[in-house]
Amino acid sequence: MPKRIALVAGASRGAGRGIAYALGDAGMIVYVTGRSTNEQTTDNRSETIE
Question: What is the largest CA-CA distance in the chain?
């Protein structure tokens, strides 16, 4: 059976992060988007994506 693939937007924190982890734990290939540390808009938050 082929692997399932998911795209989770807003996965750097909150519900999006939880969903991304749950899908990964279920064996799916997960691509995520979220806040980047390269931007000035992150306000030095710890949950940004490196």
Answer: 43
For 7-21, what is each residue's pLDDT tens digit?
Answer: 999 887 789 989 999
- Three-state SS annotation for 4-39: CEEEECCCCCHHHHHHHHHHHHCCCEEEECCCECCC
Taking the complete model, does pTM exceed 0.70, yes or no?
no
Core vs surface per residue 17-44: b (16+ CB within 10 A) or e: bebbeebeeeeeebebebbeeeeeebee
CA distance 34 to 21: 14
Query: Minimal CA–CA distance to 38: which of 12, 16, 20?
Result: 12
